[in-house]
Design a protein that fits this description.
Structural class: alpha/beta
Number of strands: 12
Number of helices: 11
Oligomer: single chain
Largest sheet: 5 strands, mixed
CATH superfamily of the largest domain: ATPase, nucleotide binding domain
Strand order of the largest sheet: 3-2-1-4-5
Bound molecules: 5'-O-[(R)-(carboxyoxy)(hydroxy)phosphoryl]adenosine, zinc ion
Radius of gyration: 20 Å
Order of helices and strands: EEEHHEHEHEEEHHEEHHEHEHH
Helix content: 40-55%
Distance between the termini: 24 Å
Strand content: 15-25%
Mean pLDDT: 94
Length: 330
C-alpha cells in the first residue's frame, strides 16, 4: 500500500511517500536559515514557512515517488508534541487532503515516529518489547514499549532536553545553530576529561539545566582570570558533551536492567551524535543488549518516519482517524 506522511512539528516541512515500509520519497525543507540569527527556533517564523512551502513540498515528494496522489491509501501526520502553530499547519493540510482524496488519515505522536526510524526501508522485525530512547531538541525520554499503541514513559528530563542544552551551550560559546551539530563536529576524545561536569539524575529521569549553568559560570570565571582561550573553550565543550552523553547512556542501561529489556531502539536528532552512538554501541555490546540506531539522516525530523509508523498502525493495528481529532498514538 502507498502511504503519505506529513511532518511540521518544528522547523522542518516534510512530506514522504512510502510503499509499505519502503521509502519512495522523503522531501524536507527547513526554515533553519531564517532562525539562525536568533539562536533558536521562532515559532511564528516556523509556522509561516510551513504555510508557504507545504504544498510545494508535497508536490515534490509525490513527483519524486512516481506515485499518483490518487493512489495514496492513508495519510499520516504528526499531531503532537511540537510547536502548536506549526502542528496546526500540517494537521489541517492532512485533513484537507483526506477530505479531497476521500482517504483516511492518522494523527501520530512525533516521539513515537522517531522510534520507527530504524525499521524503515529494511525488513527488520520490530523487536517488541523494547526500550525506546528518544533524544531530541525538545525531549529526552525513555519508553517501555510493548507495542506502538502500548507505550509508557519510564524516564524523562525534568528541565532542559539534551538537544536544547546542546543548543543553549553552543549559543553561549558563540557557535552556530543547531548547537548539537557544531559541538559534535569539534569533539576530540583526548579532551573529553579536561573538566569534570556532572549531569543531574533522579531515578530514570534526567536533568540537564545544571550542567549548562555550571559550564557558563566556568567560562565566566576563566574569562575574568584571563585564562579563557580557544584551547580552553574546546576543552570545556568536549567535557560538556562527554558528560551529557554519559548521563544518557547510564540511564538507558539502568532502565534496561530495571525493566529487563534486551532491545534498545533509539531516535531523535541528538541520536545523530557520533560520541553518543559510539558509547551506546560499546555499552550494548558489553551487556549483550541489541541496539537499534537509525541512520543519521532519519534521526532528525522527517516525514518518512511518520509514514512508517502510520503504515504500521493502520495496516497491522487497524487504526485510523477521520475528521475528529482521534489520535492513533498519544
Ligand atoms: O529530533 P529533532 O530533529 O527535532 C526535535 O524534535 O527537536 O532534534 C533537533 C535537535 C537539536 O537540538 C540539535 O542540536 C540536535 O537535535 N542535534 C544534535 C546533532 N544533530 C542534531 N545534537 C548532538 N549531535 C548531533 N550530531
Ligand atoms: Zn523530533
Amino acid at each position: 500500500m502507498y502511504i503519505l506522511g506529513i511532518e511540521t512539528s518544528c522547523d522542518e516541512t516534510s512530506c514522504a511517500v512510502l510503499k509499505n515500509r519502503k521509502m519512495l520519497a522523503n522531501i524536507t525543507v527547513s526554515s533553519l536559515s531564517f532562525h539562525k540569527k536568533y539562536g533558536g527556533i521562532i515559532p511564528e517564523i516556523a509556522t509561516r514557512n510551513h504555510l508557504r512551502v507545504i504544498d510545494k513540498v508535497l508536490k515534490l515528494a509525490v513527483e519524486r515517488s512516481g506515485v499518483d496522489l490518487k493512489k495514496i491509501q492513508i495519510i499520516g501526520v504528526t499531531h503532537r508534541p511540537g510547536l502548536i502553530g506549526a502542528l496546526v499547519v500540517g494537521l489541517n493540510f492532512a485533513k484537507a487532503l483526506s477530505l479531497a482524496l476521500d482517504k483516511p488519515f492518522l494523527a501520530v505522536n512525533h516521539l513515537h515516529s522517531h522510534l520507527f526510524a530504524s525499521f524503515l526501508d529494511n525488513n527488520l522485525k520490530i523487536p517488541f518489547p523494547f526500550l525506546g530512547l528518544v533524544v531530541s531538541g525538545g525531549h529526552t525520554e525513555l519508553f517501555s514499549v510493548k507495542d506502538f499503541d502500548n507505550m509508557k514513559v519510564i524516564g524523562r528530563t525534568r528541565d532542559d532536553a539534551a538537544g536544547e542544552v546542546f543548543d543553549k551551550v553552543a549559543r553561549a560559546f558563540g557557535l552556530g545553530y543547531p548547537g548539537g551539530v557544531y559541538i559534535d563536529r569539534i569533539f576530540k576524545h583526548r579532551l573529553k576529561d579536561s573538566f569534570k561536569f556532572k549531569c543531574g539524575k533522579i531515578g530514570l529521569d534526567f536533568s540537564f539545566s545544571g550542567i549548562k549553568t555550571a559550564l557558563i559560570y566556568k567560562k565566566m570565571e576563566l574569562q575574568k582570570q584571563g585564562r579563557f582561550c580557544k584551547d580552553i573553550k574546546l576543552k570545556l565543550l568536549c567535557s560538556f558533551q562527554e558528560s551529557v552523553v554519559n548521563a544518557i547512556v547510564e540511564n538507558t542501561l539502568l532502565a534496561a536492567e530495571k525493566f529487563k529489556i534486551k532491545n534498545i531502539v533509539c531516535g531523535g536528532g541528538v541520536i545523530a551524535n557520533t560520541r553518543l552512538r559510539e558509547l551506546l554501541s560499546v555499552a550494548a555490546a558489553g551487556r549483550n543488549l541489541k541496539l537499534y540506531l537509525p541512520s543519521k539522516e532519519l534521526s532528525s525530523d522527517n516525514a518518512a518516519v511518520v509514514a512508517g509508523l502510520t503504515f504500521y498502525l493502520y495496516n497491522i493495528k487497524r487504526k485510523e482517524s477521520r475528521f475528529g481529532l482521534m489520535a492513533a498514538s498519544n
